[in-house]
Amino acid sequence: MVKTLYLIRHGATQGDGVKRYKGSLDVPLSEEGIEQIKRVALYLSKVIKDERPVVYSSPLSRALKSAEIISDNFNVKPVIVPELRERNFGIWEGMSFEQIKERYPEEFSLWANNPLKYSPPGGESTIEVRDRVMKALRGLLHPFTNSPLQIIVAHGGVNRIILCELLGIPLENIFRIEQEHGAINIIEFHDNYPVVKLVNGVCTV
Q1: What residues form DSSP beta bridges with 149?
Q2: 182: which DSSP letter?
Q3: HSE of 164 in the Cβ direction (CA atoms, 13 Å)?
Q4: Where are the beta strands (DSSP E) in 65-157?
Q5: CB within 10 Å: which end of the chain, N or C, has fewer?
Q6: Residue 182, Cα to own-chain centre: how many angstroms?
Q7: What gap in Å lies between CA 89 and CA 126, rounded to an integer?
Q8: What is the pTM of this model?
């Protein structure tokens, strides 16, 4: 049996006009983000049709609200998985790129040159996030006991890590994978062998 995972990034959030490291801050969806996820939910309801997927979500409200909008179409409730939360950016959370470069130039340079191992002060490294996310993912995917269809609603950083790991891409290249707000990624598992069918699909209508 082919098992399918729909990996979704949450919709746009309030205050997205300035690029900031929001990380583990609990920032709500904006009206635009809600509309983005409504389009995702409509798409999923068309491709999944009459089947009932299991929906998992990060505990952060921008992901959980997105998961709830999607779940409503299937008359299910999302299951919160704490390990799917976004990376903790420590003292940089809520700050813009320019603010960080101005206030923490040395630390920002270390982060830019080695995002794999370096963690922002008080935050998590990519490796630390990878370890918690992939441990949780293995638990959710194996053995797909509840349904051959699963939906995970998470974050840009989390989704990139999952895609890198499933594709065998070195984590040093994590930022070569784009994840727009409301992005849809589709992964099929053939006897536990992952085949990535879609990356960063965006519903425009």
Answers
A1: 4
A2: T
A3: 25
A4: 79-80, 149-154
A5: C
A6: 10
A7: 10
A8: 0.93
Residues in the chain: 205
Burial grade of 132 (CB within 10 A; 0-12, 13-18, 19 or more) = middle
CATH topology of domain 2-201: Rossmann fold (3.40.50)
For 94-146, the pLDDT digits (tens) are 898 889 989 999 988 888 788 888 888 889 989 999 999 999 999 998 765 55
Closest Cα to residue 163, out of 2, 7, 4?
Answer: 7
Neighbouring CB atoms inside 10 A of 71's CB total 21
Q: How far is CA 1 from CA 142, 143, 144, 150, in A?
A: 13, 12, 11, 14
Phi, psi of 197 (to 5 degrees): -95, -30
Measured distance CA(181)–CA(196) in Å, rounded: 19
The span from the CA of 160 to the CA of 57, in Å, is 16
Cis peptide before 121 (omega within 30 of 0): no
For all residues of the chain together, what is the average pLDDT? 91
Which residue ranges make up each domain of the chain?
2-201
Q: In sequence order, what DSSP letters do the residues of 3-21 get, joined into one string?
A: EEEEEEE---BTTTTS-B-
- Residues 192 and 21: their CA atoms lie apart, in Å, by 34
